[in-house]
Amino acid sequence: MTVDGEQVAALRARAEQLTAQLRQASSALGDISTRVQAVTVTATSADRSITATVGPDGRLRRLELTPQVFEHADARQLAEEIEATIRVAAEEAERRVLDTCSPYVSEESLTAFRNNDFNGAIRRMVEQLPGEDAGR
């Protein structure tokens, strides 16, 4: 089979186009990772005595209690209220992260995130990208 100059030029142009698309995707994923890692959500209890802030992984970053918490009937009720407030914040953080990532990453990565494997989810996203020299 003989390849003429026009075919070679067309293949080169297509390769350059694909390389540019891969670089753009790689850059977008870096941006997504930055946006995900910046997610923080704060939730406040109905009586405003408990405020919980979580990160993108749903882990508690800050817990604030007002003197009003001492009005709870017992320690168990207070603990349940704290847990519920943290859970609301964590669920919202998960929703925001999934909304940010879902257009760009595989279901496997999203599943890893849902299973609290935040680092694994980010690693899987990065692994799906070609290396810097993939287009060379």
Describe the structure concisely.
With 136 residues, this protein is mainly alpha-helical. The chain has helices at 5-37, 75-101, 107-114, 118-127, and strands at 41-44, 50-54, 60-65. The model is unreliable at 132-136 (pLDDT under 50).
The percent range for helix content is 55-70%
Order of helices and strands: HEEEHHH
Task: List unreliable stretches of 5+ residues.
Answer: 132-136
Distance between the termini: 25 Å
Structural class: mainly alpha
CATH level-3 fold name of the domain at 39-127: Ybab, Chain: A
- The CATH architecture of the domain at 39-127 would be 2-Layer Sandwich
Shape: rod-shaped
DSSP helix count?
A: 4
For the largest sheet, list the strands in their spatial order. 1-2-3
Oligomeric grouping of the chains: single chain
Protein name: YbaB/EbfC family DNA-binding protein
Pfam family, one: YbaB_DNA_bd
InterPro entries: YbaB-like_sf (IPR036894), YbaB/EbfC (IPR004401)
Report on the structure:
The protein starts with a helix and ends in a 9-residue tail after the last helix. It has 4 helices and 3 strands. The longest helix is centred in the first third of the chain and has 33 residues, at 5-37. It has helices at 5-37, 75-101, 107-114, 118-127, and strands at 41-44, 50-54, 60-65. The chain has a 3-stranded antiparallel β-sheet with strand order 1-2-3, with helices on one face. It has a domain at 39-127: 2-Layer Sandwich (Ybab, Chain: A), CATH 3.30.1310.10. The chain is mainly α. Mean pLDDT is 82; it is low at 132-136.
